[in-house]
What does this fold into?
Amino acid sequence: MEACKELKTKYDHCFNVWFSEKFLRGVNDDSECAALLKVYTECVAVSYSAEFTLHIFLFNAMKMRNN
It folds into this structure.
C-alpha cells in the first residue's frame, strides 16, 4: 500500500531494532513497537477498504453502462 509506505518503514525500523537489540538478547516484551503496528495496520485496513469500495463502484458503473 503506497498510502501506508512511510508508516511501514517506521514500523519495520522499530521492529528490526527491537528484534536485534532486545529479542535476540532474551527480552520478549514487544510493546515498544505496538503503537506503530496499530497505526500501520489501521492504515492498511482503511486503504484496502477504500480500494475495495472503488472497485465495487467501478464494477457497478460498468454494469449499468452495459445495460
